[in-house]
């Protein structure tokens, strides 16, 4: 399974196919992107099974 290149918001968002709506930095948009990434992460986590 592929993984993001780093843990930066941009890398993780790109991994999940989430992109900025604007080119300028916007803290509110960063917060929304972080929320969207967490939603995608938890959707992915539900499909994964951890083996001991």
Could you explain the architecture of this structure?
It is a single chain. The chain has one domain. The chain starts with 8 loop residues before the first helix and ends in a 5-residue tail after the last helix. It is mainly α and 52 residues long. The protein is elongated, with a radius of gyration of 13 Å. 54% of the residues lie in helices and 0% in strands. The mean pLDDT is 89.
Brief digest:
With 52 residues, the chain is mainly α. It has two helices and no strands. The chain is elongated, with a radius of gyration of 13 Å.
Report the biggest beta sheet as strand number plus sense, adding barrel if it closes.
none
- Give the fraction of residues assigned to helices: 40-55%
**Number of helices in the DSSP assignment:** 2
Stretches where pLDDT falls below 50 for ≥5 residues? none
Overall morphology = elongated
What is the ordering of alpha helices and beta strands? Answer: HH
Strand content: under 5%
Radius of gyration: 13 Å
Question: Structural class of the helix and strand makeup?
Answer: mainly alpha
Number of strands: 0
- Kindly give the count of domains: 1
Distance between the termini: 19 Å
Mean pLDDT across all amino acids: 89
Topology:
Blueprint lengths: L8 H7 L11 H21 L5
Note the main attributes of this structure:
52 residues; 54% helix; 2 helices; single chain
């Amino acid at each position: 399974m592929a993984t993001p290149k780093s843990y930066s918001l941009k890398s993780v968002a790109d991994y999940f196919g989430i992109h900025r709506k604007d080119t300028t930095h916007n803290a509110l948009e960063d917060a929304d992107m972080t929320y969207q990434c967490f939603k995608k992460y938890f959707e992915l986590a539900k499909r994964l099974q951890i083996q001991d």
